[in-house]
Amino acid sequence: MKQQLGRVVVITGAAGGIGRALVDLFATGGDTVVAVDLPDSGVLEMARHLDGGQFTNEHKEILT
């Protein structure tokens, strides 16, 4: 995949298999990733996994 820095990518279902792989792909490619999923989906664990690397992580809980 060609790298295009500066994009903002929104990924729904981000804690699941394909969603998580896409988060990793775009984050390592230099994009800003907004990872969206349900509260009990494991999205916080995924964010902690990314936070252990070269990425910054900010968590916001949105109730609708």
Automatic annotation (TrEMBL):
InterPro entries: NAD(P)-bd_dom_sf, SDR_fam. Keywords: Plasmid. This is SDR family NAD(P)-dependent oxidoreductase. It comes from Rhizobium leguminosarum. The lineage of its organism: Bacteria, Pseudomonadati, Pseudomonadota, Alphaproteobacteria, Hyphomicrobiales.
